[in-house]
Amino acid sequence: MIQFYAPDIESELTLPEEEARHCIKVLRTRSGDVIEVIDGKGYRFSCRLTDDNPRHATVEIETKTAVPLSWSTKITVAVAPTKNMDRMEWMVEKLTEIGINRIIPLHCRYSERKEIKIDRLQRIAVSAMKQSLKTVLPEITPMRSFNEVIQSSDAEQKFIAYCDPSIPRKLLSCEYRPVADSVLILIGPEGDFSKEEISSAITAGYMPISLGENRLRTETAAFNACDTIHIINQLKQ
Amino acid sequence: MIQFYAPDIESELTLPEEEARHCIKVLRTRSGDVIEVIDGKGYRFSCRLTDDNPRHATVEIETKTAVPLSWSTKITVAVAPTKNMDRMEWMVEKLTEIGINRIIPLHCRYSERKEIKIDRLQRIAVSAMKQSLKTVLPEITPMRSFNEVIQSSDAEQKFIAYCDPSIPRKLLSCEYRPVADSVLILIGPEGDFSKEEISSAITAGYMPISLGENRLRTETAAFNACDTIHIINQLKQ
């Protein structure tokens, strides 16, 4: 199944130009054919193409179906962007595939990257959402400071993952309680969070955690943390 | 900590040329300095450099330390290689980081790639082993046929992951028993395993499994499967 992404499909009844080009030029869909469209907000539409102009393709909606997320815990990962953008892009693709609600690029003490353009990351998330047959687009926020994130989160369970062995912590897999309706996990840069950051987070109610005995790259840690939440949630079912 | 890889360090007392160049040209290590060397077989050596010739660096071993794997279950993933080699390379890096014993490229009915060069994958595994501070190099075997793999494996628990919803299966997270001393998971190509392959595997004692509700790319499925084994193992500790 191929899904086209049109965030305003319901009000505008047109495909964005890039999607229209793919639909009509590449896949040679014609007026009268039926296509599947998602809005990134949890709905899938079965649409009949009414104009196969690749610049201004219009549709009429035949059916609208709510396709809720397959997981119930709202998962946010706040992660210090890696120096190498390929690794960030890979991370966004993989988090979207396994299922995430929100990604916050985190500006912290030892961040290797202090600025980040999120447009390209958002396009990767769109592509991964379509490919993995989801209907909800993860939110990718602009970069936020560490302090802003730890002071403002209202997640039910909050964790900070770090490597520093001198500050006690337990495994995320053992600490996470699947009753949580929302969870936030902070993942630090290659140089780890500073001791002050770890201490502020703990004071702000974050549980200190480890992701196991392996030294993981930032993007691997983010994937592993999100995967852990899904796997522990599966066990309670 | 920087680890150098020299599989024959104990018998030859020299660094391979690529490692010697990095050690001496890039990091400017000199005769008399102490470096850490791993052999990929579970040992770390503290070595004193006795000749800082970048083509033929020699060492004397000061200490030899056994560094066992941090996990006890022997994990094998047999996976149909993706068409795009970047995705395979990414997969090898990530599986090595989170911990795997053996990767078998699998030739199956709907494989998109019927041949694979494993040299480059092995170099990526070496690099990820060093980076993640492991001392054991995962084995990457030449490509094997589906039938050969399912007939010859002696793993204690064996699983086949597939998407076909018409053949009943349960979640890996719920089916895997952490008492296993060895586990093998088959991961299919983008076009899935054929019904005949699934049926032969089940007859050969493989448990049919799903990795959850998401449609995952091959390389993501392999990572997720290996991650699931580690997370369930963590819970029993």
From TrEMBL, chains A, B:
<protein>
    <recommendedName>
        <fullName>Ribosomal RNA small subunit methyltransferase E</fullName>
        <ecNumber>2.1.1.193</ecNumber>
    </recommendedName>
</protein>
<keyword id="KW-0808">Transferase</keyword>
<keyword id="KW-0489">Methyltransferase</keyword>
<keyword id="KW-0698">rRNA processing</keyword>
<dbReference type="InterPro" id="IPR046886">
    <property type="entry name" value="RsmE_MTase_dom"/>
</dbReference>
<feature type="domain" description="Ribosomal RNA small subunit methyltransferase E PUA-like">
    <location>
        <begin position="15"/>
        <end position="62"/>
    </location>
</feature>
<dbReference type="InterPro" id="IPR006700">
    <property type="entry name" value="RsmE"/>
</dbReference>
<dbReference type="GO" id="GO:0032259">
    <property type="term" value="P:methylation"/>
</dbReference>
<dbReference type="Pfam" id="PF20260">
    <property type="entry name" value="PUA_4"/>
</dbReference>
<dbReference type="InterPro" id="IPR015947">
    <property type="entry name" value="PUA-like_sf"/>
</dbReference>
<feature type="domain" description="Ribosomal RNA small subunit methyltransferase E methyltransferase">
    <location>
        <begin position="72"/>
        <end position="229"/>
    </location>
</feature>
<dbReference type="GO" id="GO:0008168">
    <property type="term" value="F:methyltransferase activity"/>
</dbReference>
<comment type="similarity">
    <text>Belongs to the RNA methyltransferase RsmE family.</text>
</comment>
<keyword id="KW-0949">S-adenosyl-L-methionine</keyword>
<keyword id="KW-0963">Cytoplasm</keyword>
<dbReference type="InterPro" id="IPR029026">
    <property type="entry name" value="tRNA_m1G_MTases_N"/>
</dbReference>
<dbReference type="InterPro" id="IPR046887">
    <property type="entry name" value="RsmE_PUA-like"/>
</dbReference>
<comment type="function">
    <text>Specifically methylates the N3 position of the uracil ring of uridine 1498 (m3U1498) in 16S rRNA. Acts on the fully assembled 30S ribosomal subunit.</text>
</comment>
<dbReference type="Pfam" id="PF04452">
    <property type="entry name" value="Methyltrans_RNA"/>
</dbReference>
<dbReference type="InterPro" id="IPR029028">
    <property type="entry name" value="Alpha/beta_knot_MTases"/>
</dbReference>
